[in-house]
Design goal:
Elements lengths: L33 H16 L2 H6 L5 H4 L4 H33 L4 H7 L5 H39 L12 H32 L11 H18 L1 H6 L5 H25 L1 H22 L2
Helix pairs in contact: 1-4, 1-7, 4-7, 6-10, 6-11, 7-8, 7-11, 8-10, 10-11
Length: 293
């Protein structure tokens, strides 16, 4: 397996373009639910800080000196950055829930719990789908990125560059990062961006029942998946993965997984997408470091 294969990279398809979309269970809600907003906001805010050990482990050891301070300065700056990231989630959640209430997307398990509806059977199915799909997605990406990594290493050799020797953070740090990314990135990419795009598309293309057409959902899914891939470019460049093939590898693998998470979101809701993202990252950031330390 190539040395680049264990870097986080990131699949699924759909139905006939003329069918209506497989939207999550609960009916469209008209009122803004503050309980759901605050729950997701606090969950996302706390989860933002779980990435800190993983992020520090990937930081250049010379970075504190370059900043004119020591490790305490770096830690303080990292915490401050996560405070900002966590606070940013609140308006994104609000906008996502408002748009979702108009197109039938959202967090059906949490909503059902708040509404005192029976969600046990639906929740079990949705979370199981997410967990299993995420594991399979992670395994597929490991295989694809291993094969692609050979091409990337050949490109580095052709350019006369040394292939980055990326040391993955320890599994416990990867576990915390998996929780963090599964929550925060799904709020940003699926609840906010994808839902917003679906709402915009539904203004122009909807079924007689008022639902967004399936191609609107899949178009929004693909766009948000590409954005998910681009979101990982700063990390890739910080790890010296800067050649065209290396960046293409980062984009394609993450976009494939983003499509998978978007499918889970459409089919089973936000909680299922979060679970899928979490289990995928377990493969990439916990299992891989254990197998290939």
């Amino acid at each position: 397996m190539g040395r680049l294969a264990s870097t986080k990279l990131q699949a699924f398809g759909g139905n006939s373009m003329n069918e209506t979309a497989p939207l999550p269970a609960p009916p469209v809600r008209k009122a803004f639910d503050w309980r759901l907003f605050l729950t997701l906001g606090l969950l996302g805010f706390v989860a933002s800080f779980l990435i800190i050990p993983y992020a520090l482990a990937l930081t250049d050891p010379q970075a504190p000196a370059a900043l004119g301070g020591g490790e305490t300065t770096l830690l303080a700056m990292t915490i401050a950055g996560q405070v900002c990231n966590g606070a940013l989630l609140f308006p994104l959640i609000a906008l996502g829930l408002l748009a979702g209430s108009k197109v039938g997307l959202g967090a059906p398990i949490l909503q059902g719990l708040f509404d005192r509806q029976p969600v046990k059977a639906f929740a079990g199915k949705a979370l199981l789908w997410g967990f299993v799909a995420g594991l399979l997605g992670g395994a597929v990406v490991v295989g694809l990125s291993s094969a692609f990594g050979v091409l990337v290493e050949a490109e580095y050799a052709r350019l006369g560059l040394e292939v980055p020797d990326i040391q993955m953070p320890s599994p416990w740090k990867g576990f915390l990062a998996s929780i963090s990314a599964g929550i925060t990135e799904e709020i940003m990419l699926r609840l906010f961006l994808m839902t917003g795009l679906v709402w915009l598309g539904s203004l122009f293309w909807r079924t007689p029942e008022g639902k967004p057409r399936l191609f609107v959902l899949w178009s929004a899914n693909i766009v948000s998946a590409v954005a998910f891939g681009l979101l990982h470019f700063p990390l890739a460049t910080s790890l010296s993965l800067v050649t065209p093939l290396a960046l293409l590898n980062t984009l394609l693998m993450n976009a494939l997984l983003g499509i998978l998470f978007g499918w889970l979101y459409m089919k089973h809701g936000l909680e299922s997408a979060m679970m899928g993202h979490f289990s995928t990252d377990l493969v990439l950031h916990v299992l891989m470091p254990l197998l290939f330390p």
